Fold this sequence. Notes:
Number of helices: 8
Strand order of the largest sheet: 2-3-1-4-7-8-16
Strand content: 25-35%
Shape: elongated
Mean pLDDT: 78
Oligomer: single chain
Low-confidence stretches: 100-117, 299-309
Structural class: alpha/beta
Number of strands: 18
Distance between the termini: 39 Å
Largest sheet: 7 strands, mixed
Amino acid sequence: MGALAIYGTFxxxxxxxxxxxxxxxxxxxxxxxNVTDFAPASSEQLTLEQVLDAIIxxxxxxxLIVSHGAGNGINLNVDIAPLLQDIIIxxxxxxxxxxxxxxxxxxxxxxxxxxxxxxxxxxxxVRQVRAxxxxxxxxxxxxxxxxxxxxDTLASLLNCRSINAxxxxxxxxxxxxxxxxxxxxxxxxxxxxxxxQVDGQPGSRVGFEIIVDDQHHTVVFNLRVEAADxxxxxxxxxxxxxxxxxxxxxxxxxFSSQTLPIxxxxxxxxRDAYFPKDPEYVANTATVTPSITNWCAPISIGDxxxxxx
Length: 309
């Protein structure tokens, strides 16, 4: 069985990209899986419950989650750290035999405010997901890999073997490559409204720029190919794509009608882009294995601690 990709409507590029490039995570990190099934949510942004529902419906054990980041954490349309704390308390109550009045932690929103909701809804779904014994979860959301404690807790909660997530901005975009003459390419490269990167040798260069609008969560990816004619340009574009991505077939690339789905990590400091086959891409992802095996021991999440013992 292949892996399942779960994403909100905001990330509509997810399916066209992974239909062309099904491999995650990059092969230099851990054994990879192939994305074969897609579960788009009905809303722009995912919720934790939608993620659980999709996993249960597909019975998949390798999972890709494409979502917004929130600071250094993942945004699943809830304040996920307190909610995870609440669910952990419920798991602790169920697995360790404590009554609600004996719990030493006050859930977010007031003491036991989420008990009924979690017990009847999320907790049951968490239990079903845990029973699947998930293999790998890959998250593509901005900077999620920086919060190792949150990833550890999420991995432990979902009962998966590992979670892989980026340390930098995670960018998805669809671009229409344009072929330029050498003089036009040089003019475009030197008209630096933004930071533009170039790859290749004179006569067959590929240049690109990324324009990120954090306020509106939009990304523009402009791609230009230096070539004297269409045939040379297509060969240059396909060579570049084969060196940057894991497309099994690049014959679909043209300059006239086809668009190119793009995924990369974006370094805001240097304004450089790293693609899945770049060593910098692998270096800027984090893989976390769950450390919580004893649910009756103290559990740390984020910058706080839940004294469950």
